[in-house]
Design a protein that fits this description.
By secondary structure, the protein is mostly helical. It contains four helices and no strands. The mean pLDDT is 89.
Length: 136
């Protein structure tokens, strides 16, 4: 059951991250998020905010099982957690009434870079997870 939760949450995280990257692409060329694109970005981000902790807990509980994880697999997982939390935290702090306008702009910029790194990390997690399962 734990394996099912891990795999389904990873699948939805991959799909949601793909949607987040696709909707954020216009910002790389000086555009901005607005309208339906922003709405879709917000919906996909909700899935990431909910499922990243679910995936992390399922993955950590599975570590108790006899199967060992490679250093590469644990590194990819930790990188996903670090950049996933950074992506979530930058936007969360931006929503609080404590940041100035300049700080908000910097946080949004950091949010984009952390999100891009999270997308690369989730690709590494998928690669290391499924190459391990193929060889096991």
């Amino acid at each position: 059951m734990l394996s099912l939760i891990r795999n389904v949450s990873l699948l939805v995280l991959v799909i949601a991250t793909g949607a987040l990257v696709a909707t954020a692409l216009p910002t790389l060329w000086g555009g901005h998020l607005g309208g339906a694109t922003l709405r879709f970005h917000m919906m996909a981000s909700g899935a990431v905010v909910v499922l990243l902790p679910v995936y992390a807990i399922a993955r950590l509980l599975m570590r108790r099982l006899p199967a060992t994880e490679s250093v590469m697999e644990m590194g990819a997982f930790r990188t996903l957690l670090i950049f996933g939390i950074a992506t979530i935290a930058t936007m969360f702090v931006c929503m609080l009434p404590v940041a100035s306008t300049d700080t908000m702009h910097e946080l949004v910029e950091l949010h984009g870079w952390a999100g891009l790194a999270m997308a690369a990390a989730i690709a590494a997690v998928v690669y290391t997870t499924f190459t391990r399962e193929k060889t096991a």
